[in-house]
Every structure is written in structure tokens, then in C-alpha cells.
Write a structure and sequence with these properties.
The complex is a heterodimer of chains A (171) and B (558). Chain A has 171 residues and is α+β, with helices and mostly antiparallel strands. Chain A is 27% helix and 40% strand. Chain A has helices at residues 15-25, 54-66, 98-108, 128-138, and strands at residues 2-10, 29-37, 43-51, 70-75, 81-92, 111-115, 119-126, 143-148, 152-155. Chain B has 21 helices and 20 strands. In chain B, the strands form 4 sheets. A 6-stranded parallel sheet of chain B has the order 3-2-4-5-7-6, with helices on both faces. Classes of the chains: A alpha+beta (171), B alpha/beta (558). The interface between A and B is medium-sized, with 30 and 27 residues. Magnesium ion is lined by residues 435-437, 463, 465-467 of chain B.
Chain lengths: 171, 558
């Protein structure tokens, strides 16, 4: 099972190493990780997609929470969040298939960001399903390179997420 | 007033009421050592940095205060690593201070540079590299706070030598505010009431007590819960001393080398009340087969320990002492008469035994140390058979008297830990129960011990073997003693003691044991007692790796 969690951390040197070190030391599988500053410059937000059963997820949350530089860990529930990923794809073309390629990019919802003599660079973003479809549609043309940002996520409730400290852990 | 980084550091240690500092000098801590020269802090010069960390750890375990150690950059810092990892596994409050190469050289493979914050990241509760002298006082304050609160642990502070020499205004913060760190101390009332109800309804309850109970000074509350409600108590290696082993409700230690009656009792129980223990694999054995009929109440300050290894029915996150105080108010005494009877029968039937002949056996030595000191001693141990015999045959009756590397199982821990303990408790009888292998891992500390006139008694249970490993080779590797026999290659420990200015004693006969111990106790100096024990004595009972803990070898017999 894949889970998406969001981790608010102190925006300090070395914090990424603490998180990634924790995950590798405890054998947690990261499928994707994206980091960036938040509305509060002292806080960074990591969106981590992890693989594991409920018990593993529970440990991941608790162990992450134990890190002093971790301010909050949020586990997204199905249906209560949106997630997006940005990808850049370089695709080769020939004079024969260029038109088909551009049509395919268009149909897939991608944007051509640069075009050269024999290749184009396409930008696309979307949720997991969308990214998958785009890659499948473009694959037959010959993908030269794919670069992905990793997923970021936000919940769709009316509340904002404040970095006001860890919640009381009381079960 | 402006102060240098080194002065600020010393001032912080003073504010934190640090009385003893264990360490070793070097190039990148010269400014600190210069200030230590006339600081009102007792500095203990060890002979290897690993011992500084273990000594700080032993000091912390014996006194409950935070232990502090100091080393130079590079090799000094890396030598601390085993000691830090040992403290981390056993949740010991420690602050380790290291010098680092000058800020502008960091990352350049400078002379004696090691990325010690990187190296210790997985074995510290938290660590810091000081990048600006203005942060130093706050970092020190936070380091002591983090090390000693919540689930304690080691915190390392790495200070580049240029920062030790820079100047800034000193201001010690009186409060710590770390938004990501708010340990839960008070247990959830609803959960405590549920636990009380479960205890009141239990027919076969058992208290399972770990190092957390010692750390939170919860012995009194554990004892009250056990005695008022007639609940038998078993302890982990680190929990020994939390409840008096001499009490009839005590089942001693459980687990791989626990007593058979403790293991049978927990396996047969219908309610486990876990206090500051973590269901470690040395305790549970085969986890799927562990205590199949038991409901579990788990009291722990670390939420991550709860439901990690076994499913928990009633988790209570909080400080063991505070939680038990509340719990004790609500528990109605369960009817455990039949249970107590059964447990007592087991205790009788499966009591710890050894062959009581004329041979010099280690178990007898431990019993005699107990008799000679009337149990009033701090027992540090090394690792191996010696450690297990100490746990089994010395009757621990008070908290903070059993100092042993449980989680990491570090050979070489006991002696430096004894140094720390003796400095923290100058009037106590401090013993290091050692193996002939382990003692050689930090034997150089004889110099430290003698220099500081510490009356530590080192008891070498000398089997001329790496005995515990040999035992496994005997039982599971067809008697193939691959590189575990030290016979013929060992030093003369008596001469060695003499060479260091300590006192050495050789004891080869059973009838000489008691008089030797009495004699050693009267000597106001470090003493090595080299007991030549039955070489192939095994630690029993024993649960083979991966077995259920009631499947014991040698459960009832000697
Ligand atoms: C630093 C370290 N290295 C290796 C081990 C593995 N080990 C565990 S017990 C043991 C033998 C200990 O021998 P000794 O100190 O003579 O004690 P005995 O078991 O004979 O009482 C060894 C090698 C360890 N625990 N720690
Ligand atoms: Mg030995």
C-alpha cells in the first residue's frame, strides 16, 4: 500500500539527511520525496510517498515525529487531499512523426516548452493517473529523458496547516 | 560581558550543574582545555575516548543526572561512537561535546576532520554542529534539555575550534522552546482508567518492568502497584532493581536467560502490565508465540515504542512514575490468589540452580558478593556470560544499582561505567563483573581508576574463553570453538594490576572466594580479582534464538 504523508520540518541544514537517514536505517521504502519552503520561511514541507502496511505507516509517523526537527506529520486520507507531480520529458522525433507527436502531447495535456531539431521538451503535471497516461501516450515516440519532481500534496479541507508544534500523542 | 566560545561552554556546564566531565584532549579542543585548567569542574582524564562516553553513561545511570564527555575532532570524536551508541540504545541522558576543525575548513578533508554529526545522526537523540558563536549558549541549553527529558538519550554538540576562540555576549536562556519537541508526561486519564479496570478484572496479571521505570524513578510506584494488588513482577536486564528481587512477588529477569518461572508466568498470564519496557526480541523470543492469552497494557514515554513489536490493547503514553501514581489510585485489587500460588510453585520448582560442588563456579561468586555487601553495591557488568550470571545471581534490590549495556551489548562497557558510577556515588561499593575477554577492551582505564583513587572492584570471571560465544558454538555449532579460546594468550591480570598501581588477586578455589571478597572490600584502591572459574560453565536456562520463551534449555536443572 502506498501512503502520502506530509512532514513539516525546521528549514535548517541537515534536516533532509535526518529524514532520509531515518527511513533507510529503519528500512522504510520511499517511493517519492519532494521538499520545499512553505508560507513560513522557517518551515519546510516534505511530501513523502511511502510504501508499507498500516503498521509500518504507524511506525513511520511515530519515528519521524521523534526527530527534534520535525514539527508535524500529517497522514493524508483517501479523498481528502490532492496530489500533483511535475514532469519534464524529452522526446525525439523525425520529420515523419513530428505532427503525430505534437498532437499526442496536446491530447495528453502536456505543453511543449522547447523544441530542437530532433527533439522536444514537454512539461506536464497532474496526479498519478494523469502522469501515467502521458508517459504511456508518449512512449511510442521514443522518450530520451524523464525528470520528475516527486509528488506534492495538500489537503482540501478549509483548515490551514499551522506549524504550531506536534499534536499531543495520546492514544 | 563578552566571552569566548570556550568560556561560554564552561559557563553553560556550570549553569547545568555539571560536576564531572570525562574526556581527552586534542588539537581542536585546546581552547576548551585551557579554560578547564582552572574551572570549578572535576575533569576526569580517561585513557581512551570510548571510556569517557561509557563513564559519562555510568555516571548518569548511577545518579540520574546527565553524563558529559568531551573529545577532540576526528579520531577523538569517532572513538566516542561506541559509547554514544550504547547510551542511545539504553536511553541514557548524555551530552557529548566534540571539537571540530575550523569552520572554514569543514568539508575540506582537513587534518583530523570527521563528519561526526553525520556519523552520529542515527545514534543520537539529536545533534548539533555549532555554526555561529551566537547560537552556542542556546544549543548547550537545548542539548541538556533534550538529553534529559522525554525518553532520554545522548545529544552531541560539535564545536569548531575557531568558534571556541571567537567572542560574543553570553546570555543563557532560561527556557527552551523547541516546537518539534514536546514529550508527553501525563498519561491519558481515560486510558489509565481502562488500565485500572483491566487490572482489577485480571486473573493472572504480571508486571513487566524495564529500564524506563528506573529512568523515571518509578520504583516506589511499581512496588506499590505490585504489593497492594498482589501482582508478580518480572524485570528486563535494565529493569533489575526497580522491584526488590528478594520479595516473594519478584520473578527476577525474563527472556533469553531469564528465569524459567518468569518466562512461564508471562507466557501464561492474561494481562501484561508493561512499564518502561519495549518488548525487545531478547525478551519476547518468537514474537508470534509470545504470551498468547495476554491483554497488554503498555506504559511508555515514547509513542514509537508502543505497538512496535507486539500488539497493545491499552497504550498509555507518558512518564512511568506519573502514570503509575494515577493508576494506583484507580486499581481495585484483583483476585490473584490462585495465580500467586501457581507462580510460587513454578518459582520453587524451576528455581535457578547450579552445581554446588567443590568447583569454583561463577554463580557462587555472585552470591558471595551479594552476601558480603548485603546487596548494598552498584554492579556494573561487561557483556557475555558474566553479565547474565550477574543478572541471575546478584539480588538487586534498589534502582540504579545494575549498570549494564542491554540494547547494544557492548563489551568493554562495565569498567569505564564503574568509573563513572564511583565518581557519582563516592561512598558506594562499585563492582565491575567482567569476563576475561571484555575487561581487555578497556583495560587501559586502570590508569584512570588508580589515578583517581577509585576503590572499584573488578571481578573477572575468568574462563579463558569468550564464553558466551563459546556457549553458542558448543550448543549450536557442534563444539567448534572457532577463535573463542583465549587460553595461553591471556595476560597475568595480577601483574597487570600491579603494573598500573592497582591491587591484583588470584582466586582459584571455592573456599577462598568469600575471604578474598572481604579482603578486597577493605582495600581502598582499585582491585582486580582474577577468579579462575569452571571453564565450560554455561548460562542456563536459555531460550535458543527464535524460539518461544517457554521452550528453554536447562529450565529446571543445573
Ligand atoms: C564490542 C563487542 N564485540 C563482540 C561482542 C560479541 N560477544 C558477546 S559476548 C562475547 C564474549 C565475551 O567474553 P568474556 O568477556 O570473556 O565473557 P564471558 O562470556 O566469557 O563471561 C563476545 C565476543 C560484543 N558483545 N561486543
Ligand atoms: Mg570469558
Amino acid at each position: 500500500m502506498k501512503h502520502t504523508i506530509s512532514v513539516l520540518v525546521e528549514n535548517k541544514f541537515g534536516v533532509l539527511a535526518r529524514i532520509s537517514g531515518l527511513f533507510s536505517a529503519r528500512g522504510f521504502n520511499i517511493s517519492s520525496l519532494a521538499v520545499g519552503e512553505t508560507e513560513d520561511p522557517t518551515v519546510s514541507r516534505m511530501t513523502i510517498v511511502v510504501e508499507g502496511d498500516d503498521k509500518t505507516l504507524e511506525q513511520i509517523k511515530k519515528q519521524s515525529n521523534k526527530l527534534i526537527d520535525v514539527i508535524k506529520v500529517i497522514d493524508y486520507r483517501e479523498g481528502e487531499f490532492i496530489d500533483r507531480e511535475l514532469i519534464l520529458i524529452k522526446i525525439s522525433f523525425t520529420s515523419k512523426n513530428k505532427k503525430d507527436l505534437l498532437a499526442a502531447v496536446d491530447a495528453a495535456g502536456g505543453k511543449v516548452e522547447s523544441s530542437g531539431d530532433r527533439s522536444i521538451c514537454v512539461e506536464a503535471s497532474g496526479d498519478r493517473a494523469k502522469i501515467k497516461t502521458i508517459l504511456e501516450l508518449l512512449k511510442p515516440f521514443g522518450i530520451l529523458e524523464v525528470v520528475r519532481t516527486g509528488r506534492i500534496a495538500i489537503d482540501t479541507t478549509d483548515k490551514g496547516l499551522k506549524a504550531d508544534g506536534k499534536p499531543e500523542v495520546n492514544e | 560581558m563578552k566571552m569566548t566560545g570556550a568560556e561560554i561552554l564552561i559557563e553553560c556546564l556550570k549553569r547545568e550543574k555539571v560536576e564531572v566531565l570525562f574526556g581527552y584532549p586534542g588539537g581542536q579542543v585546546l581552547p576548551i582545555f585551557d579554560k578547564l585548567y582552572d574551572a570549578p569542574i572535576k575533569f576526569i582524564l580517561v585513557r581512551h575516548e570510548q571510556a569517557a562516553a561509557h563513564a559519562a553513561d555510568g555516571y548518569a545511570r548511577a545518579t540520574g543526572k546527565t553524563g558529559v564527555c568531551l573529545a577532540t575532532s576526528g579520531p577523538g570524536a569517532t572513538n566516542l561512537v561506541t559509547g554514544i551508541a550504547t547510551a542511545y540504545m539504553d536511553s541514557i541522558p548524555m551530552v557529548a561535546i566534540t571539537g571540530q576543525v575550523k569552520s572554514f575548513l569543514i568539508g575540506n578533508d582537513a587534518f583530523q576532520e570527521a563528519d561526526i554529526t553525520g556519523i552520529t545522526r542515527p545514534i543520537t537523540k539529536h545533534n548539533y554542529l555549532v555554526e555561529d558563536i551566537k547560537d552556542l549558549a542556546r544549543i548547550m541549553k537545548e542539548a541538556f534539555h533534550i538529553a534529559s527529558t522525554g525518553r532520554p538519550g545522548p545529544v552531541l554538540v560539535d564545536i569548531p575550534s575557531d568558534i571556541q576562540m571567537q567572542q560574543c555576549e553570553f546570555e543563557y536562556p532560561d527556557k527552551v522552546s523547541i516546537r518539534g519537541y514536546n514529550p508527553t508526561y501525563i498519561g491519558h486519564v481515560g486510558q489509565i482508567k481502562r488500565a485500572a479496570k483491566a487490572i482489577s478484572e485480571a486473573k493472572k496479571p504480571i508486571l513487566y518492568v524495564g529500564g524506563g521505570a528506573i529512568i523515571s524513578n518509578a520504583s516506589e510506584e511499581v512496588t506499590e502497584l505490585a504489593i497492594n494488588n498482589e501482582i508478580p513482577v518480572t524485570m528486563t536486564l535494565l529493569g533489575l532493581g526497580a522491584f526488590p528481587s528478594t520479595h516473594e512477588l519478584s520473578l527476577g529477569m525474563l527472556g533469553m536467560h531469564g528465569t524459567a518461572y518468569a518466562n512461564h508466568s508471562i507466557m501464561d498470564s492474561d494481562l501484561i502490565i508493561s512499564v518502561g519496557a519495549r518488548f525487545d526480541d531478547r525478551v519476547t523470543g518468537k514474537v508470534d508465540a509470545f504470551a498468547p492469552h495476554a491483554k497488554v497494557i503498555h506504559i511508555d514515554i515514547d509513542p514509537a515504542s508502543v505497538s512496535k513489536n507486539v500488539e497493545v490493547d491499552i497504550p498509555i503514553v507518558g512518564d512511568a512514575k506519573l502514570v503509575l501514581k494515577e493508576l494506583n489510585k484507580f486499581v481495585k485489587k484483583p483476585d490473584t490468589k490462585d495465580w500467586i500460588k501457581t507462580v510460587a510453585e513454578w518459582k520453587n520448582k524451576y528455581s535457578l540452580k547450579y552445581k554446588d560442588d567443590n568447583t569454583l563456579r561463577p554463580q557462587y561468586i555472585l552470591e558471595q558478593i551479594y552476601e558480603a555487601t548485603k546487596g548494598d553495591a552498584i554492579i556494573c557488568t561487561e557483556v557475555g556470560q558474566n553479565q547474565m550470571w550477574a543478572a541471575q545471581f546478584f539480588k538487586f534490590t534498589k534502582p540504579r544499582t545494575m549498570l549494564s549495556s542491554g540494547g547494544l551489548g557492548t563489551m568493554g562497557y562495565g569498567f569505564p561505567a564503574a568509573i563513572g558510577a564511583q565518581l557519582g556515588k563516592p561512598d558506594a561499593h562499585v563492582f565491575d563483573i567482567a569476563g576475561d575477554g571484555s575487561i581487555q577492551m578497556n583495560i587501559q582505564e586502570l590508569a584512570t581508576s588508580v589515578a583517581n583513587k577509585l576503590p572499584i572492584k573488578i571481578v573477572i570471571l575468568n574462563n579463558c574463553y569468550l564464553g558466551m560465544v563459546r556457549q553458542w558454538q558448543e550448543l549450536f555449532y557442534n563444539h567448534r570453538y572457532s577463535y573463542t579460546c583465549l587460553n595461553g594468550t591471556e595476560p597475568d591480570f595480577v601483574k597487570l594490576a600491579d603494573a598500573y598501581g592497582a591491587v591484583g588477586m588470584l582466586i582459584t578455589k571455592k573456599e577462598d572466594v568469600r575471604s578474598a571478597i572481604d579482603k578486597a572490600l577493605a582495600i581502598n584502591n582499585t582491585v582486580i580479582m582474577d577468579f579462575r572459574i569452571e571453564r565450560e560453565e554455561n548460562v542456563y536456562p536459555m531460550v535458543p534464538a527464535g524460539e518461544a520463551i517457554n521452550k528453554m534449555i536447562g529450565g529446571g536443572l543445573a
